[in-house]
Amino acid sequence: xxxxxxxxxxxxxxxxxxxxxxxxxxxxxxxxxxxxxxxxxxxxxxxxxxxxxxxxxxxxxxxxxxxxxxxxxxxxxxxxxxxxxxxxxxxxxxxxxxxxxxxxxxxxxxxxxxxxxxxxxxxxxxxxxxxxxxxxxxxxxxxxxxxxxxxxxxxxxxxxxxxxxxxxxxxxxxxxxxxxxxxxxxxxxxxxxxxxxxxxxxxxxxxxxxxxxxxxxxxxxxxxxxxxxxxxxxxxxxxxxxxxxxxxxxxxxxxxxxxxxxxxxxxxxxxxxxxxx
Length: 277
Hints:
- The chain folds into 2 domains: 10-37 and 240-275; 46-238, CATH 1.20.1330.10.
- By secondary structure, the chain is mainly α.
- The chain is rod-shaped and about 130 Å long.
- Helix 1 (10-35) runs antiparallel to helix 6 (242-266) and helix 2 (46-100) packs antiparallel against helix 3 (108-131).
- The protein contains 7 helices and 4 strands, in the order H-H-H-E-E-E-E-H-H-H-H.
């Protein structure tokens, strides 16, 4: 339909509809720029929203898994440090036993002095084994067995690592007060073998813990890389491209201003028709 009409202003209706569409698009762009998100709700992009939630879930899971591996490393370092102290104690005990086993230079008083120090070191081994803990959990008294660490975002075997730490008290190591003494030359000779076996046991325990610690450290680095990649994918999907959105915002502003001007002119058309009468 063409020409000037009084009862129906087609031009004004068309101008209003175009302006309304432009204003809606401008409102959406303003929301994106103000929030930094191009997907603010499921209504913006239903399929993208679902994918975004999955990526966010996975990213959050990786973040916590990284924290879990770092806590595991700290726990293992605590156990490792305590075993290092025990190894040092056992080395001293071995020196004392070797000294006491040399009967040609020993007397009753020197053997008694060596035995007193030896017993003190035995008690120190037990004190370390019983008091070493992480967050209130004992590590070296034999109770830390099959403890699971969640090192991935999902409840599956590949995302979990089980850790056990053997006891390291004097009885377990075979050098308790009832198992080893250096109160005589013959006892000292037997104690040498017991202490040396204990040194090997502690060294083996430390090596096992060290291997798991290295595994956790490598795993943490791998999880960090995976988390960064997931976060990047989430950002590309959900976050707004500021450069593109700003360009669109400017374009829509111009269209809105032009639309307002055109609508104002279109609204004057019925008046022009009336003047022809």
